[in-house]
Write a structure and sequence with these properties.
Largest sheet: 7 strands, mixed
Helix content: 25-40%
Oligomer: single chain
Strand content: 25-35%
Order of helices and strands: EEEEHEHEHHHEEEEEHEH
Radius of gyration: 16 Å
C-alpha cells in the first residue's frame, strides 16, 4: 500500500511540497521533494521527534533527506537536527554562534516549556553548528527543475530568521515564527521588534500576493494575513 501525505498526517500544499503540524507546540515541519533529493524545513523539538519527521519525509520522498533548513534557533524548531545525520544543514548566519554560546539557554527554554530534561540534555549534547550559513539568498537545486530559495529575511522574531521559498503553482513560503497563525507572534528576549515589520515586507516581496505562507505555528495563510500581522506588529512595537 502506498502511503499518502494525508495518510501520514501531512498537508500537501503542491506537487512534492507539504508540511505537518507537530504535537506539543504545534510547530510546522516542511518537506520539498526533488529528484533524488529532499529538503526538510525545521527539525522538531527533540531527537525523537526529528527521527519521526525524517522517517516520514523519506517515505514521502521515496529516498533519503539530503537537506535540512532551520528557520531560526529556538529549541522547538532545532532540537531534532542531529537526527538528520548526513543531510546538508542550512541556517541564517549567526545561528552557529547561538548553538555554541546559547546551549544553556536553549535547554532552559525547552525544560521551562515542558520538554523532559533528559530529552533536552540529549538534544543539546548532539546539537551541531549548521554547515551552511546563509547571509543573503541561497538557491538549492533538488533535481529536475525543482529548486528552493533560502532567504535570510531577518532579523525579526530572532536575530537569525531564514525563510524558504518553493517556486511553483502555487508558490509556497515557509516563514518560521516570523508569522504565527495559532496565536499572537511571540517576541522573546532575542527578538528584534524594530526590524520585524521589515522582515515581513521581505517575505511578502519574496512570495508575492498569490503564494501560500506557512507559519511556524498554525494554519497556512495568505498574503493578506501576513500583511495584517505586519501592520499589527508595527503598531505593537511603535514601528512605521
Amino acid at each position: 500500500m502506498t502511503l499518502t501525505w494525508e495518510g501520514l498526517g501531512w498537508e500537501r500544499l503542491g506537487a512534492g511540497v507539504g508540511r505537518c503540524r507537530l504535537p506539543g507546540w504545534d510547530c510546522t515541519a516542511g518537506l520539498v521533494v526533488g529528484a533524488g533529493a529532499a529538503l526538510v524545513v525545521d527539525a522538531g523539538s527533540s531527537l525523537t521527534e526529528g527521527t519521526r519527521i525524517r522517517a516520514q519525509a523519506e517515505v514521502l520522498a521515496g529516498g533519503r533527506v539530503t537537506h535540512l533548513a532551520l528557520t531560526h534557533p529556538h529549541f522547538d524548531h532545532v532540537f531534532g537536527a542531529a537526527s538528520f545525520a548526513g543531510a546538508e544543514v542550512y541556517a541564517a548566519v549567526g545561528t552557529d554562534a547561538v548553538f555554541a554560546a546559547g546551549r544553556g539557554q536553549l535547554r532552559a527554554d525547552a525544560v521551562r516549556e515542558g520538554l523532559p530534561a533528559e530529552d533536552a540534555d540529549a538534544a543539546v549534547t548532539a546539537l551541531a553548528a549548521p554547515r551552511h550559513p546563509v547571509s543573503g539568498e541561497w538557491t538549492l537545486d533538488l533535481g529536475e527543475g525543482r529548486q528552493a530559495l533560502l532567504a535570510n529575511v531577518g532579523p525579526g522574531h530572532t536575530a537569525h530568521d531564514l525563510a524558504v521559498l518553493v517556486p511553483g503553482d502555487p508558490e509556497v513560503v515557509f516563514c518560521g515564527d516570523l508569522v504565527e497563525e495559532s496565536g499572537e507572534p511571540q517576541a522573546g528576549p532575542d527578538a528584534v521588534p524594530s526590524r520585524w515589520p521589515d522582515a515581513l515586507d521581505r517575505l511578502l516581496a519574496l512570495g508575492g500576493p498569490d503564494a501560500l505562507y506557512v507559519p511556524g505555528h498554525g494554519a497556512v495563510v495568505d498574503a493578506a494575513f501576513v500583511r495584517r500581522q505586519r501592520d499589527a506588529l508595527a503598531a505593537r512595537f511603535g514601528v512605521s
